[in-house]
Amino acid sequence: MSQVGVTLPFDGLPLHQHREAIERLADAGISEVSTGESNGLDALSPLLLAAAWRPELTLTAAVVSAFTRGPSIMASTAAALAEAAPGRARFGIGAGSDRIVEGWNGIPFTKPYSRVAHTLRVLRATLSGQRASTVAESAAALGIEDFKLGRPPERPPALVVAALGPRMQRLAAAEADGVVLNFLAASDVSTVRDAAAGVDRQLPDPLAVQARVFVVTGEGDPAELAARRMIAAYLSVPVYANFQRWLGRGEQLAEMAEAWDRGDRAKAVEVIPDQVVHDLFLTGSPRDIAPRVRAYLDAGVEIATLGVLPPYGVKASPSDQVDFLCELAAALWSDAVT
User: Fold this and answer.
1) Sign of the CA dihedral with 175 first, then 180, 183, and 189 last
2) How far apart are the C-alpha atoms of 146 and 140, rounded to whole Å?
3) Which of 26, 79, 146, 319 is least surrounded by Cβ atoms within 10 Å, i.e. has the fewest?
4) Do 35 and 41 meet the contact criterion of CB atoms below 8 Å apart?
5) Rg from Cα positions in the chain
6) Cβ–Cβ contacts within 10 Å for residue 338, how many?
C-alpha cells in the first residue's frame, strides 16, 4: 500500500518538542517518518521517539552510511530500530558522499559500491541471527573478524539501499528489500524501474521503491530561489551529479556545474533551467502540490517521503510547516478519493 511520509527532525524544533507535530501529522494521514545522517542529528533518535509517541508509524532510517558506522555497530543500530517498531522498521544503507565520509569524518571514500554491497550482506546475515562468517567473502572484504549479534530482532527490519546509479540500483533490485531515491522527478521512476528489470532477484518479495520528494512551502520567486540554491549545493557533489547525468540531465546542468567549479555560486544558482527546478521540487499551495505527490505514487513509488523547505528568506516556524503538511495530506487523500 502506498504511503506518504515526512522527513524528521523539523528545523527550529528541539527533538523533545516534536511530539505534538508527529501526532498531528499521523492524525492527518502521514504514515511514515524518515531520517538521515549528515551534519545534523543521528538517524535513530528521532525515529525512536516517534515510535514511542505513535506506534503505528513506519520508521525509515534513510540513510546510514556504510562507511561511518562499523558493521557490528550498524547491525546493533538496525536491531534497535526493529525492536522499537516490529514489522514497521526500514533500515537504509548508503555510501554517502566523499564530502561526508572523507571530508567530515576522515574516512577514505574508496570502493563505495563494494562497501555497501558487503555491508548489506553482513547485515542480512547477522540480523537473522547468523554469524558474519556465513557471508565469509563480505566479512573479509570489510576486514572484520567473526561477529554474531547478541540480540537479533524477532522481526528484522527491511533493508533498503540508497542508489544513485544503475550499478547500485541493480544491487538493490537483487538483494535489498527496497531502494531509496533522491532528487528525481515522478517521470524518472520508470527509468529506475527499467534499470532493475531483468535482475536476478534473490528475495521473494518485489523491490519496494521509496523516494524523498522535496517540497517548498510557498510559491513565486522566494520558493524558486530556495529550490535553486539546494539544487546547486547538492547536484554539484559528484555522486549526485553522476546520478543526474544518468537520468539524462547532464547537458541541462552543465552550465551550473561549470559556474560552481569556478566558484561563482550566484551564477550556478541562476543558470539552472526552469524545467529542472520544476522537475525536482514541488512548490505552491497544498492543493497545487497534492497531485504532483500523487504522480510519484502512481509511477510506482511505495513511500513518498516529503522533505520540506521554507521559501528563501522566509523564517517559517515548525508549526507553519506542520500546518502546511496537514493541509497537503488532506488535499492528497481528497484527490485520491475523487
Assistant:
1) positive
2) 9
3) 146
4) yes
5) 20
6) 5
C-alpha cell belonging to residue 290: 497534492
pLDDT digits (tens, 9 = 90+) for 106-129: 999 999 999 999 999 999 999 999
Q: 323 burial class (0-12, 13-18, 19+ CB within 10 angstroms)?
A: middle
Question: What are the pLDDT digits (tens) for 166-210?
Answer: 899 999 999 999 999 999 999 999 988 888 888 999 999 999 999
CA distances from 25 to 22, 28, 53 (A): 5, 5, 12
Secondary structure class of 260 (helix, strand, coil): helix
Task: Report the C-alpha gap between 237 and 253 in whole angstroms.
Answer: 12
Environment class of 191 (CB within 10 Å of its CB; exposed 0-12, middle 13-18, buried 19+): middle
CA pair distance 179, 164, nearest whole angstrom: 10
Cis-peptide into 9, omega within 30 deg: yes
Amino acid identity for residue 77 in this structure: T
Stated length of the chain: 338
**Helix/strand/coil for 323:** helix
> Measured between alpha carbons, how far is 128 from 123 in angstroms, rounded to an integer?
8
Cell of 237: 557533489
Give the containing element (helix H, strand E) for 209: strand 208-216
Name the burial class of residue 255, with classes exposed (0-12), middle (13-18) and buried (19+) by CB atoms within 10 angstroms of its CB.
middle
Q: How far is CA 106 from CA 73, 97, 143, in A?
A: 18, 12, 18
β-pair partners for 5 = 32, 305
Do you find a cis peptide bond into 63, omega within 30 degrees of 0?
yes
Angle formed by the axes of helices 112-127 and 71-84, to 10°? 50
**C-beta separation of 283 from 327 below 8 A:** no
